[in-house]
């Protein structure tokens, strides 16, 4: 879920050693920052816990449940909508989204070697179309030999 923050300073007018009113204040827009919270990547020694640790949020992905993750569309994210996969392996690998019929919807590469186990998906297919409502499967495959392929479910309700 994205966070926005700014740090500013304020002081008081001091006369004869006493604060008597507001003084100078910084402009919060002067140091406005955007931050996203990430999950910790799953290390190889905990590979046996992948089934309990890897998940996608929000699930089900409905307009109401996606709202806290939604941002205004921009060039790098034309829809502003996303779901996030959490606690991916601490290695390189890929998350593949499939229909129940076995058609590949999208393949997303991840790199958790730096400790970030979070990967976002904008609910757009490999053909550049918004995915339809339905149940989707996703597989997480790690390039590290300690991890077996993980399979999970995701529900999208438009």
Please sum up the structure shown.
With about 160 residues, the chain is mainly beta. It has 2 helices and 11 strands.
Q: Strands across the major sheet, in which order?
A: 8-7-10-11
Q: What percent of residues adopt helix (DSSP H or I)?
A: under 10%
Silhouette: elongated
Main β sheet profile: 4 strands, antiparallel
Question: Which CATH class of the largest domain is shown?
Answer: Mainly Beta
Give the SSE string: EEEEHEHEEEEEE
CATH topology of the largest domain: Immunoglobulin-like
Taken as a percent bin, the fraction of beta residues is 35-45%
Average pLDDT number: 86
Head-to-tail CA distance between termini: 20 Å
DSSP helix count? 2
User: Would you count the extended β strands for me?
Assistant: 11
Radius of gyration of CA atoms, rounded to a whole number: 21 Å
Known CATH architecture of the largest domain: Sandwich
CATH superfamily of the largest domain: Macroglobulin (MG2) domain
Overall number of structural domains: 2
Residue ranges: pLDDT <50 for 5 or more in a row?
none
Structural class: mainly beta
């Amino acid at each position: 879920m994205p966070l926005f923050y700014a740090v500013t300073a304020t002081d008081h007018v001091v006369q004869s050693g006493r604060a008597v009113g507001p003084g100078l204040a910084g402009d919060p827009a002067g140091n406005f920052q955007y931050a996203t919270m990430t999950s910790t990547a799953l290390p190889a020694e905990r590979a046996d816990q992948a089934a309990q640790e890897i998940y996608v949020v929000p699930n089900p992905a409905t307009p109401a449940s996606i709202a806290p993750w939604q941002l205004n569309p921009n060039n790098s994210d034309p829809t502003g909508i996303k779901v996030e996969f959490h606690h991916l392996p601490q290695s390189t690998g890929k998350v593949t989204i499939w229909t129940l019929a076995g058609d590949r919807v999208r393949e997303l590469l991840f790199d958790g070697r730096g400790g970030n186990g979070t990967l976002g998906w904008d609910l757009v297919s490999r053909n550049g179309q918004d995915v339809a409502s339905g149940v989707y499967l996703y597989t997480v495959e790690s390039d590290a030999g300690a991890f077996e392929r993980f399979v999970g479910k995701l529900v999208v309700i438009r």
